[in-house]
């Protein structure tokens, strides 16, 4: 297996991840029923997001945190949901890639999940 080194690698990883996560018993409904994401529109944003993070190409524009607050108001995004998101991400990375950038993808996802979990929990308190 190779490391994540190109935009094509990022696209492959993200497609594989979404193919799994939208079918997940615990969190799939967030994507299909709550956010009702249109993968044709959503995936290019996620390609840009992860390309920016993993390859250092500043192609992502947006605020991923802001998008999740309205979803959290409909159905609470809880720690168990972020943990499952990370489990699926980590498995997808390990099933398809190995190397420093692949490990960075997991570390970055862990950090993103922790921050989002904290912010979503605080938003529910208010």
UniProtKB/TrEMBL annotation:
Give the Gene Ontology MF terms in alphabetical order: heme binding; metal ion binding; oxygen binding
Taken from the record, one Pfam family name reads Bac_globin
Q: Which InterPro entries match?
A: Globin-like_sf, Globin/Proto, Hemoglobin_trunc
Which portions of this protein are annotated as coiled-coil regions?
A: none
Keyword entries, A-Z: Heme, Iron, Metal-binding, Transport
Q: Which residues bind heme?
A: 68, 118
| DNA-binding among keywords | no
What protein name does the entry list?
Answer: Hemoglobin
Whether Zinc counts among this entry's keywords is: no
Q: Which domain of life is it from?
A: Bacteria
User: Organism, per UniProt?
Assistant: Epilithonimonas mollis
- Taxonomic classification, please? Bacteria, Pseudomonadati, Bacteroidota, Flavobacteriia, Flavobacteriales
